[in-house]
Amino acid sequence: MLRYSAKQLLNMALTLFAVSFLVFALNELSPGDVTRKILGPYASQSQVDHLTREMGLDRPALVRYFEYMGKALTGNFGNSIYYRQPVSELMWDRLGNTLLLAAISFAVIVPISVLLGVLAGMRERGWFDRAVSIFSSICASIPEFAMGVFLLAIFVVWLGVLPGTSPLRGDAGWAIWMQFVLPVLVVTFYDAGYLIAMVRSSMVEVMRQPYIRTALLKGNSFRNVVAKHALRNALITPFTVILLQLNYLVSGLVVVETLFAYPGFGRLMLEAALAKDIAVLEAGTLVAVSVTMLTQLFGDLGYMALDPRIRV
Amino acid sequence: MTEVSHDLAGGRVGSFRGTDAAAASRGWARKIYDLLTRSPIGTIGAAILLTWTILAVFAPWIAPYSPTKIDPALIADPYPSAQHWLGVDHLGRDILSRLIWGARTVLTVAPTAVLGAVILGTFLGLLAGYRGGIVDAVIMRIGDTLLAFPKIILYLIIIAKFGASAFNIIAVITLSSAPIIARIVRGVTLDIKNRDYVAAARMRGESAFFIMFVEILPNARGPLIVDFFLRLGYTTIAIGVLGFLGVGLPPPDPDWGGMVKEAYGMIFVWPHMTIIPSLAISSLVIGANFLATGLREASLDG
User: Fold this and answer.
1) Is there a single domain that holds both residue A42 and residue A175?
2) Average pLDDT over residues B142-153
3) Are residues A59 and A198 in the same domain?
4) What is the pLDDT of residues B236-285, one digit of tens each?
5) Of A102, A283, A304, B254, which has fewest CB within 10 angstroms of its CB?
6) Does some domain include residue A312?
7) Is the preceding peptide bond at B252 cis, omega within 30 degrees of 0?
8) Residue ranges of the domains in chain B?
């Protein structure tokens, strides 16, 4: 297991390296952009050239790439040209907000999905299974922004019981916890739709196994068989998928954050993309990819711990 | 108890039938007929998709007004009426006409993007699985690197760099979906490539190209067709999301996600302007997902 982790970590480092290089190379397709953007359209060419020299942008791309990576390893991602602020300060702050929203959503989504998925999958094609399958399929089909619009129309416009924006400030007239309700609900509907289907199909698979039939024919009660024989095995496959939801919850929240003006990481990336703020985009991509790969590693390790049949 | 054992038996027979050669060789017309009669979900999905497709194809004749004609006089009463069935938007444009023309955009961009991904992914997956060795390693490595990017961030980088256009959206979706399709096809290829009939084809002296596309590829047809409709749904969501975030297809062409974004700020005053396009996009995705579910059930039952 230790060797496997070491190998995966090395793999991770290589992929991160490739990703950072790709993003950097993409940026190189239009050099000189950055200085022009800082100085504005009315700066003379000589001013632009001067700043380009001063920032060291006239040096070969490879030299600058390694310099950038060297700094990035110490947590220095340069300055945002749009926010005029060090990228690291900006990013950790936003990332913290997103992680908070992600953690709350995760704590809601996982129990609901596991419960509904298991209950639906234990009697394949029963009425409950049919109902849950259709429900989860519809939930996963409604884009987050559409779900946001529907919930907003009901709870904010019509009933007026919840706030329509979640800027996480206390002066908006709504308690902070109430500002979390709608964003969490939107994420939950969309993501749980997918997870329920995953847990259900794994449960269906397990319930078809001969050992389940044996246990039933031996006279065990259905409840007992589900709880003692099926549940544990049915949760092995979805475990990885559940962990992978963390990726979605870190970068995929951009829509929910935009809907509710939530000051998170996804919206930062969107604003950076719209403002062509490459420094922020680069750093954010590295962070997001690291999160993806770390969850993958933990997923694999957990998978091995849960299922003794899997060895590497 | 009886119900349970019945379910168990049904499940087993189903899985046996799924691998039955006779069932696999039945024509697709028959399959579709089976689907219509056996899976109500699949039928509903197919009907929704068909409706939108007809509206999209015949948009110039069906749409009652021009989708881009601005009429400020109508904003005084933008709600649904006898003249404008779904009302008008904040610029006085007929919402129904915009939906119908928007269907045309979505149903062009989404299938093109998915088809691009299927073609690229199939080709790479066959190559990786059949050739193995270094070719396999390189292809899968590149795919893994692309998959490491969270999708939305990949979009944002490309769009920040190259701007928003239908072509870029298609390119990004193709790039980010192809590795997943390549994995599916590679899995099937690895499973099939050592079968006797593939060895026989090799003995006959068929080219690698022939073996990959004529002998192996048809085996991946089932999973690929189900995946196509699932991916069509996701891609529709993705295009809508890009439109909603303001990095989608450039205005003034009607784009469902863009329509939601434009009217979102006015949801307190005129909620119908955002709710109607949200319903439209949801229905299209539900149609695609239901059809995929129906097809999967049909293929499991043989």
Assistant:
1) no
2) 83
3) no
4) 999 999 889 888 887 767 789 989 998 888 888 888 999 999 999 999 99
5) A304
6) no
7) yes
8) 28-297
Q: Look at A15 and B144 and tell me if their CB atoms are within 8 Å.
A: yes
If DSSP codes are grouped into helix, strand and coil, which group holds residue A174? coil
**Token pair for residue A2?**
């230790």
**Over residues B220-230, mean pLDDT:** 86
Residues A107 and A154 grouped into a single domain: yes
Does residue A154 surpass a pLDDT of 60?
Answer: yes
How many CB contacts within 8 angstroms connect chain A with chain B? 155
Whether residue B241 and residue A143 make contact (CB cut-off 8 A), yes or no, is yes
* Nearest residue on chain B to A204, alpha-carbon basis: B11
Same domain for A240 and A290, yes or no, is: yes
Distance from A9 to chain B by nearest Cα, in Å?
A: 14
Whether residues B150 and A270 touch (CB distance < 8 A) is answered with no
Closest residue in B to A122 (Cα) is B4
User: Which residues on chain B are in Cβ contact (under 8 Å) with A134?
Assistant: 41
Per CB-CB distance under 8 Å, the chain B contacts of A283 are: none
* Chain B environment of A140 (Cβ under 8 Å): 289
Would you say residue A311 lies in a domain? no
Angle in degrees, CA A19, A25, A29, rounded to 5: 145
d(CA B249, CA B256): 10
- Using CB atoms and an 8 Å cut-off, which of residues 168-207 of chain A contact chain B? 204, 207
CATH number of B28-297: 1.10.3720.10
Chain B hits for A269, CB-CB cut-off 8 Å, are 152-153, 156
Query: Which residues of chain B make contact with A278, given a CB cutoff of 8 A?
Result: 160
Q: How many CA atoms lie within 13 A of B233 on its CB side?
A: 28
Same domain, A147 and A248: yes
- The values of phi and psi at residue A242, to 5°, are -60, -45
Q: What's the number of CA atoms in the CB half-sphere (13 Å) around residue B82? A: 0
Closest CA in chain B for residue A154: B271
Over residues A249-266, the mean pLDDT reads 87
Q: How many residues does chain A have?
A: 312
Chain B interface includes A13 (CB < 8 A): no
Q: Is the same domain home to A202 and A167?
A: yes
Query: Whole domain around residue A201: which residue ranges?
Result: 96-306
The distance of A45 to chain B (nearest Cα, Å) reads 23
CA distance A34 to A14: 28
Q: With a CB-CB cutoff of 8 Å, which residues 58-87 of chain A face chain B?
A: none
Task: List Cβ<8 Å contacts ≥24 apart for B137-144.
Answer: B139/B182, B140/B182, B140/B183, B140/B186, B142/B179, B143/B178, B143/B179, B143/B182, B143/B183, B144/A15, B144/B179
Nearest to B256 by CA among B243, B266, B246, B265: B243
**Shared domain check, A113 and A37:** no
Nearest-CB residue to B7 (from A19, A125, A258): A125
**Which of chain B's residues have a Cβ under 8 Å away from the Cβ of A138?**
286
Specify whether the CB–CB gap between B121 and B180 falls below 8 A: yes
What's this model's pTM, rounded to 2 decimal places?
Answer: 0.84
Domain count, chain A: 2
Among candidates B230, B200, B235, which has minimal Cα distance to B215?
Answer: B200
The CATH number covering residue A193 comes to 1.10.3720.10
B192-218: pLDDT as tens digits: 888 898 889 989 988 888 998 888 888
